Amino acid sequence: MSLWSDWVVQPLMDKALDTEKVRALRRELLADAYGAILEIGFGSGLSIGCYPDHVHGIVAVDPSPGRRTRAAPRIAASGRTVRYESLGAERLPFDDASFDTVVSEFTLCSIDSADRALAEVRRVLVPGGRLLFLEHGLAPDPGVQRWQRWLNPIQRRVAEGCQLVKEPARLIEDAGFRIDHQRSFYFEETPRILAWFTLGRAWREGPQPG
Fold this sequence. Notes:
This protein is α/β, with parallel strands linked by helices. Helices cover about 35% and strands about 25% of the residues. It has one domain (about 5-205): Vaccinia Virus protein VP39 (Rossmann fold).
């Protein structure tokens, strides 16, 4: 990763995504986390303090050494155990059916081969395991979409591959998951090209956990 990423993109992202309103969304999402937990795109660890009290440790993956360094003090402050692997989600070094929960927060937008990453997520989940997701993507309003499509090449270049035009719920369903809870909304106080959020829970087919 570049100095641009470490000194510009990551500090800006941390500032934007480490507000109380975003933390409230993370806590809502992560309330359903249970068992063996994997978080893809763990980044600088903004989620670690939002897991419920019964979660004592997770496995985290992210390809950026710079983000791993930024995550270290947050992990230490959380009192939780994190096994942090510096790699992308497109090829996970875990056995089939290794995890009960996989978490993806503001991650699918930046993975070029999101279909491949989701296939890996599905592989490492137990049958009936949950994928918890909080993502931004293509807005429903044509006027906002036009701006998103026009700005997408710029966004992708300056923001570490982040795209404005992905549809996370569709990607997840196309990967073979079944979504049983989803809500999409404009996140207030954020430019609308970035503010169409989807929070949801999907599961790998098989006996669904209670």
